[in-house]
Amino acid sequence: MDELNYLINYLANKDSVREEILKLSREITRDCAMLIRKIHKSDDKDEFKDKLNEISEKIKKLNSLATFPEFVGYLSTPQQEFVEALSLYMIKFDNKIPSFKELDFIKEENYILGLADVIGELRREVLEAMKNDNLAEVERYFKFMEDLYEFLMNFDYYHVVDNLRRKQDISRGILEKTHGDIVTFIQNLKLREHLKRVQIGLSQE
């Protein structure tokens, strides 16, 4: 009977921990998604510091809950989402990519895969800069996209990093599409500047 009670309590505790992990994981993922949307829309660097710190503490708590080996997989999505949000924030406001050493509470695989996801978010910043005819920002964000892609292509350990090849393929497609958009944008910008000079010239005659 003692063994039976032990096993029942063991599994009940394990199930309780799993439910807590799932709840916190969903919360972190939702927080990061909302944060990414707000970062895209804001130019206020200080607005997000508290939220980023709050999410990082949640991830550390999540890590501490994953005491059973089979629960480690639940860390992947929230950790990757946090790397994505933090990287977008630091690229936009600090002009740099966070290093792995700065994120010692993030698994190695999740750091790599999280950076892969930033490429798509940077495309949004490129398109926004195009709308504002801000060529300097277009080139700045695209350079980060290229740097991240080159970093990502250093890894070919597809049997130990799930989704690595898929994310590399997606990143390549985003990069190629964005490069094409930039070429068209620059051509259009030059044409509009030429037409403006022509109009000025005609008005002065």
Structure overview:
The chain has 205 residues and is an all-alpha fold. The protein has 2 domains: 1-106, Methane Monooxygenase Hydroxylase, Chain G, domain 1 (Up-down Bundle), CATH 1.20.58; 115-204. The protein is 77% helix and 0% strand. It has helices at residues 2-41, 49-65, 76-94, 108-131, 135-152, 164-203. α4 packs antiparallel against α5 (135-152) and α4 runs parallel beside α6. The radius of gyration is 23 Å and the shape is elongated.
What's the total count of β strands?
0
Order of helices and strands: HHHHHH
- CATH homology superfamily of the largest domain: Translin, domain 1
Structural class: mainly alpha
CATH topology of the largest domain: Methane Monooxygenase Hydroxylase, Chain G, domain 1
Low-confidence stretches: none
Instruction: Provide the gyration radius in Å.
Output: 23 Å
Named at the architecture level, the CATH assignment of the largest domain is Up-down Bundle
Strand content: under 5%
Span from first to last CA? Answer: 103 Å
Percentage of residues in helical conformation: over 70%
CATH class of the largest domain: Mainly Alpha
Based on Cα principal axes, name the global outline: elongated
Main beta sheet, described?
A: none
